[in-house]
């Protein structure tokens, strides 16, 4: 673009990476660029894209005096277009517009009142309500007062922000009123505060749309998606990509429609687990921190602002921008490494990379920022080297959800992945358990741990119920398990944490954040899980473990013939006799059902046989039906039925998953006990899973029944672990009972050992 010799120049206020991007954009157009800066040590202070003028401050009213003084140094015949780069600049300029009017060209000079209103975060809720956009429930804190009462209408966790721009902090997440009080006490000069309900999600759920408005009419638009920010999900963008999302564009136009604004504006959103967009905050009076992304993609907002402000034609936007990814290389030096596949050839759909300080024609800012980044990394590395080698996982946060379908997708995926290891700890299992067992007996909740990158670290399924412990009425928090559960454990991403750390962190959360419980009980757990729970640290708690039962299994299923021949002679002879006995009766058959379409009538047979067996009635028949259906959908169900003359007399519900055959339920009609139909059906089922399903392990799950030892070769113990809340009366009673029990066991063991010595 060729400009006349006396073309208006530009003055950029501030040379952070944002201001530097504006200066470089304008300088590339041949515009004479000047810049105010107060800090000569920042990378942008070395730019060759602007004439730099150092001032006392760019954030307080002294800026106005410096602007008036600078205006006198440029001939009055030459206009100056003013480009603020942060909210403090905008606030100071708007507040003193009468002192600056006529001295500078300001794109939004004609709508200062609206700009000032939207600078205050406390005004955003009213605007969203007026135009029908989602906005988190909010409260404005004007003073310390009774803070607990002031936020009583809000659900925890909270997010707190200063209502005025460029205060002591941007935003902080608080999981309790106590944390909220600590924040306001630490920043007493930043009142008023805006406190909101936290909208669940991570950085990747944050979106934005930028517009350039001319008396309210959008001339251009640009949409983007944050991939990372610092602090995570709360701070400034460190990685962002361009996107094409018309829904963001429409929502942003709704927000700004009718306000008569001019100049650059943008609106940030957060998308929740249900796919709804919530307004976070607008930016007015300036472009946003990620303007370098817009420029690189082809939406040059500073150039558009300059052209429109000086009365020149603005090229018509087609909206077809170059896919681009932007990195703030100052705050996140490793961002390009993390998102390498986004812009390196051979790794899928490419995006053009742009780095906040890098320019081949202006290298000095990049070199200084790189030196600063290396300095920070070296100091961080030095600190890491002197910290404990077994330091816990990265910063995490815990959220509680009342039902499984309320969990964010990342946690549902973690549960689905766990299903590949253990079907009794996966999403389908807890979904069915919650829907058929944990209804009315207690309140189900899922504790979910996410790291500072929004990744799912761990899930702890729990429920709250009441019961009795040796006659003492207690309020219990237990793992989401009961007699139907062969195993219980915390579900973790082993690449991000350990079981011990997950239990410790969740227990700390329960101890500090959840009220009204006397006892936490995890059962049945493996010996490895028991040991990790007993090592829980972070809070001073009393823990007691107890034996529950054994798990019998066989782990060398090479072929059926070898398996049978390796049983005891008693079992082998019993199997032969029982087959002959059934053959003598005649008319018997065994069918094993696997398909969803074929099991409904057979489930009725299962329940009829179960009712006529020696066992107690099935307490939750719909749980069994749901479990069978969920297994059949994934071709895991093996529902064996033994008929005599068309009448079912024995049933067994097995599950085959991950090369393991689990013997989940079995029963036979007690009127046919003399035929031992259970023995025959077990033999047929084992033959099927070894010969056809090629399982490697047969697992009889829980129980101390003697016959299980005869069919299986190995066993392992299962335990429970109780954690006592000594802060409650009932908790103290439980603690006392457990301690007395330990003393009794000790003396009993000592007496037994003494008796053995006497016999020797």
From TrEMBL:
Give start-end of the signal peptide.
Answer: none
ATP-grasp domain: from which residue to which, for each copy? Answer: 125-312
Which GO-annotated molecular functions does the record name? ATP binding; metal ion binding
Q: Which InterPro entries match?
A: Acyl_CoA_acyltransferase (IPR016181), ATP-grasp (IPR011761), BioF2-like_GNAT_dom (IPR038740)
The domain of life is Bacteria
* Alphabetized UniProt keyword annotations: ATP-binding, Nucleotide-binding
Full protein name: ATP-grasp domain-containing protein
